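no rush on this but wanted to send it before i forget. what follows is a protein written twice so to speak, once as letters and once as C-alpha cells for the fold. mainly i need to know what kind of three dimensional shape the backbone takes. thanks a lot i owe you, the record is right below.
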Amino acid sequence: MKVVLKSALVVAMALSVGGVALAADKKPAMPAWKMQGDELEIAMSLKGDAKEGRDIYEVCAACHLPEGWGLSDGTFPQLAGQHHNVLVKQLADIRAQNRDNPTMYPFALPSQIGGPQAVADVVEYIATLPMTPENGVGPGTDLALGEQLYKDNCVRCHGANGEGNNEKYFPRIHGQHFEYIKRQFREIRDGKRRNANPDMVKQVKGFSDRDLEAVSDYTSRIKPPADRLGPPGWQNPDFQ
C-alpha cells in the first residue's frame, strides 16, 4: 500500500467535520476548551472531497485499519462513525499539542499533512465508513454497576444510547473498544488528557478504578444503530 502524504492530511482529519461555512459576523460562541484558532474554523468551513480523502486516509489506515475500525484491544480507537466535529477537534488538539499523543503527533504535523482542505477531505472520507459490529468489550462481570454509573453520569452528554452530539463535540461512544474507553476515562480522571471537557473531568473525578472498569464495560456493549454497522469481517474495497 503506497502511503500518500497529501498537503492537508491531518488538518483534514482534525478539521473537516462536514461543517458548514459560518458567516464572519455570526460565529457562535465557543468555550475555551474547544477553541483551536483560525485553522479549525477554516477547515470546518470547507467542503470535503471523499475521493481526495481516501488518498489521505491511507496514512491513517496503517494504525486505524482501512476500515477505520481500530483494534479491539483498544490500542487504536475506531474512527468510523465518529462525529465530524469530534474528529476535527481531536486532530486539531493533537496538532496543537493540547492532547498528548506521541504516536499520532508526527503524522499530524503540517509538514506531513498540510492545510485545512486535507482535513476536510479525510474526515469526509471517514464519514463513508461503516462501524464495526464486533468491537472489543470488557469482562462483563460488573455490568449492573456500569449501567447505573452510565445513567447517572453519562447520559446527559453522550445520550442514552451513546450517540453523542456533533454540535457540542460530544463523541459517539457506542461501539467503541472497551480498553480504549477505559484508558480515556482514566486519563481524564487523572488529569492526563488535557483537552477534556471540564464538565467531564468533574463528573469522573471521584470514580474508583472499579467504577471506571464497570462503566467502560457497559458502554462498550451499547450497540450503534444497525444501519451504521458493516457486516462481520467487512474489508474496505478501497484498499483491496
